[in-house]
């Protein structure tokens, strides 16, 4: 992997060259953006055969006068990152997890999301700071990440995890089938604290990290997380 300081240097150099091209008026790519459909406008642009991710571009909002001297482009990229987050993530602001969506996988939405994040960063826009830090860590280093019950969105699952931590053994026996359905099995009574902690950890990993995904869906999300890596904390 390229050292971070080298990546930062290359990115600054790239942005300076892009700014020079823009100042000289040599920008050839024009992106027409409809305010109510920012994400769709971006996807149409990326789908064009002539579109080049690395080339400078200008933004035009239909019905609005004025030339793009950087303001409309920055506004577009900020709005794009927010709308993208609302489309492929769920949960609290800046603490979101990926949604589980096979239709989005079929549409290559996670791959396209990664391209849009790169596009934004290359042209002076924001990164993608919406993803929960633990989810990001899980995607890159699964063995080192620690999940928190607060990251579980499903209230029923959250309640059952709480029960695993405190319930009597007879109550836990009633959860056996449910645990197996959620990928936790092979743990038999007596339920020591160590066994309870193991079950909780496995459930958290399943619901926060895997969530029933297909291998391809997980791979696409991991690619997106790696793409966002260097710019994860950019606002």
Report on this model:
GO terms for molecular function: ubiquitin-protein transferase activity. Residues 49-86 form the HECT domain. Keywords: Ubl conjugation pathway. The structure is a single chain. The chain has 235 residues and is mostly helical. It has two domains: 4-139 and 212-231, Alpha-Beta Complex (Hect, E3 ligase catalytic domain fold), CATH 3.90.1750; 149-210, no CATH class. It has helices spanning 4-23, 38-47, 71-88, 102-106, 109-122, 133-140, 155-166, 169-173, 176-181, 193-210, 215-228, and strands at 29-32, 57-60, 89-92, 95-98. The protein has a two-stranded parallel sheet with strand order 1-2. Strands 3-4 form a two-stranded antiparallel sheet. The radius of gyration is 22 Å and the shape is elongated. 23% of the residues are buried.
